[in-house]
Amino acid sequence: MSEEKMKKTVEDSLVETVHIVRPTHLNSAGRLFGGVLIQWIDEVAGIVAKRHSMSNVTTASIDNLKFIRGAYQDDMVVIRGKLTYTGRTSMEIRVDTYIEDLKGIRKPINRAYFTMVALDENDRPKQVPELIVRTEAERAEWAGAEKRRENRLMRKEEGF
User: Fold this and answer.
1) Is 77 exposed, middle or buried (0-12, 13-18, 19+ CB in 10 A)?
2) Which residue ranges does the record assign to the HotDog ACOT-type domain (predicted)?
3) Roughly how many angstroms between the first and final C-alpha of the chain, as a whole number?
4) What domains appear along the chain, each with residue ranges and CATH number?
5) Among residues 42, 53, 50, which one has the least CA distance to residue 17?
6) Would you state the pLDDT for residue 133?
7) What is the DSSP letter of 24?
8) Cα gap 17→125, rounded to integer Å
9) H-helix or E-strand containing 46?
10) Distance between CA atoms of 17 and 39, rounded to whole angstroms?
């Protein structure tokens, strides 16, 4: 792979999906079931990671999964995923979830950070392209990702 192809921008792998909350997605309280939302956001994170790494990926961890408010039947749920950090074989993806009203106004309902690992044809970790960070916001995300990575490694050492 050439040096030029080994670097990608955040925009190269950005993903946005839209879902309508249906009756089959609801829990007994009439809100979007958390497990359904986790499935949707895991899929978005996986697509972002696949686009960046150009390979199969696996979810290694989910950090900071925050449920801010509920979603209800017929709500339009918008999920945006973007790369925030790359290691040698791993990638961090930020996934934000919103409810979008008929005027296009979005209200946040969830945020999560996923760590995904790129896999080769034998399901072994493989090197990922470097992430080019261009903006102040992207640099801030990168710095936050480094802190989250340190926290994950510390928790791993402590047996969590």
Assistant:
1) buried
2) 11-122
3) 37
4) 4-157 (3.10.129.10)
5) 42
6) 96
7) G
8) 27
9) helix 34-53
10) 13
* Structure tokens given for 19: 């879902």
Residue 5: pLDDT band by 50, 70, 90 thresholds? low
pLDDT of amino acid 2:
43
Token pair, residue 48, equals: 């972002």
Do 96 and 79 contact (CB within 8 A), yes or no?
Answer: yes
pLDDT, one tens digit per residue, over 75-125 is 999 999 999 999 999 999 999 999 999 999 999 999 999 999 999 999 999
Q: How far apart are CA 154 and CA 148, in angstroms?
A: 10
Query: Token pair of 67, please?
Result: 């449920």
Tokens of 134: 């261009």
Q: In the chain, at which residue ranges do the beta strands (DSSP E only) sit?
A: 7-9, 15-20, 56-67, 76-86, 90-100, 106-119, 130-132
φ/ψ of residue 90, rounded to 5: -110, 160
Q: Residue written as tokens 């009439």?
A: 30
33: tokens are 């079931």
